[in-house]
Write a structure and sequence with these properties.
- The chain folds into 2 domains: 134 residues, no CATH class; 166 residues.
- By secondary structure, the protein is mainly α.
- Helix 9 packs across helix 11 and helix 11 runs antiparallel to helix 12.
- The chain has a two-stranded antiparallel ribbon with strand order 1-2. Strands 3-4 form a two-stranded antiparallel ribbon.
- It binds zinc ion.
- The site of zinc ion (ZN) has 7 residues, from helix 6.
Length: 392
């Protein structure tokens, strides 16, 4: 099989879109006709080049894998394996639905950019123009996308494109697919919510005022976008601590505790972390470097600690499940669990005393018990954790 038109694939063009473009310029009625021929070609190749076992495996491979191998033989080019990661099911469905294109991009080079398929990408980040919805891809040069565009729907969603264009710019020269974009977006949404939560927690519970409403006021968003979660956490943590160095331990503890409490960034459980081992390791090493006590609370104390003692099972200390703790409970836990040193507790509460008025309550209810944190703090040099709450 030979193809007359052999134009190169663009970096931001998916393999299926490339095949559809090849089909058009080589005069096929439809993309699926070329796909059928490529698959037949692949089966022929498999007979000659692959051993029987491989052919058996190959039968279960995707359409696009077969097309990729066949095209590599026909065009004498190679395509990266990652081409197959693009959401190809979507493209098959696309046959019956509509396409989205940026008319300006199209004028420059007439091919489909892979990110146009993402249902959240509806404004071109290069031209800042709304994408046009078309029934078919207008490869024919005389066809003007503006003319064939369908009229916009009334409930047209206005997407939030803030993160995606920054991310795409950072990935220039690298491979990138839908799941990368989706993943980046979900991390960014989590991230914004998470830091807002931490800042409010420190403000409401510990009277530490960062004077920012969003973490992106401390760190420009493009310094975070695209980086792994733990690197981003580390960067923001460092900049928060730079702002309020005296509260370094409290800030670190709050960050770790809040990730667990709110189950952020895919955190579910220490025991069953799927695909998030890096985050788990980061949380535990953070906890350990802050205080041995904190680490022990999070992981519990294993039987081996009591090796040789009589009642192994009874002596085992289970981890504290911060996922079931309210903000108030978390605040109490931080103040009373000997994670912070007595001096650190005094540093935190000295701020409270300076601005002492009725609006600031250093006390609260936990269940039916009434706690006066002042009493605990006064006794901090003894051992806050051993103090009994005062009945009221
Ligand atoms: Zn454009």
């Amino acid at each position: 099989m030979k193809l007359l038109y052999r134009g190169d694939k663009f970096n931001d063009e998916s393999l299926p879109d490339y095949i559809f473009r090849l089909a058009y310029w080589n005069g096929f009625d439809s993309g699926s006709r070329l796909i059928d021929l490529l698959r037949i070609h692949y089966k022929e190749l498999a007979k000659h080049y692959f051993c029987d076992e491989r052919l058996h495996v190959a039968k279960k491979l995707s359409v696009w894998y077969e097309c990729k191998v066949a095209l590599e033989f026909i065009l004498n080019k190679s395509f990266h394996e990652s081409e197959l990661n693009l959401e190809i099911g979507l493209l098959i469905k696309k046959k019956y639905h509509t396409h989205w294109i940026c008319s300006e991009c199209w004028k420059e080079y007439a091919y489909v950019r892979f990110y146009w398929h993402s249902c959240d990408y509806r404004n071109c980040h290069v031209h800042d123009k709304r994408l046009l919805q078309v029934e078919f891809i207008p490869y024919e040069p005389s066809l003007n996308p503006e003319r064939i565009a369908m009229s916009p729907q009334r409930d047209w969603p206005f997407p939030d494109c803030e993160v995606t264009p920054i991310f795409l710019k950072k990935r220039i020269g690298n491979s990138c697919n839908y799941s990368d974009i989706e993943n980046e977006k979900s991390i960014s949404i989590d991230e914004e919510m998470f830091w807002w939560n931490v800042i409010v927690f420190l403000r409401d519970r510990f009277k530490i005022d960062f004077k920012v409403d969003s973490v992106y006021e401390l760190i420009p968003i493009d310094e975070l976008v695209g980086a792994p979660v733990t690197q981003r956490l580390q960067k923001v943590k460092d900049s928060l601590i730079r702002e309020k160095e005296v509260f370094a331990t409290l800030i670190s503890v709050s960050i770790v505790a809040k990730i667990i409490q709110k189950r952020m960034f895919g955190f579910e459980d220490y025991g069953y972390l799927l695909g998030s081992r890096e985050l788990k390791n980061w949380l535990l090493s953070e906890a350990y470097s802050v205080s041995r006590n904190f680490y022990t609370y999070l992981v519990g104390v294993g039987d081996h600690i009591f090796f040789g003692s009589e009642n192994l099972v009874d002596r085992r200390v289970p981890p504290i499940d911060l996922r079931k703790v309210s903000d108030k409970g978390l605040c109490q836990f931080i103040l009373e669990s000997s994670i912070l040193t007595p001096q650190e507790i005094r540093d935190i509460t000295s701020e409270w005393e300076c601005t002492s008025n009725s609006a600031i309550k250093i006390e609260g209810y936990v269940g039916r018990r009434h706690y006066y944190y002042n009493k605990y703090i006064q006794a901090a040099d003894l051992n806050v954790f051993d103090m009994e709450p005062e009945p009221r």
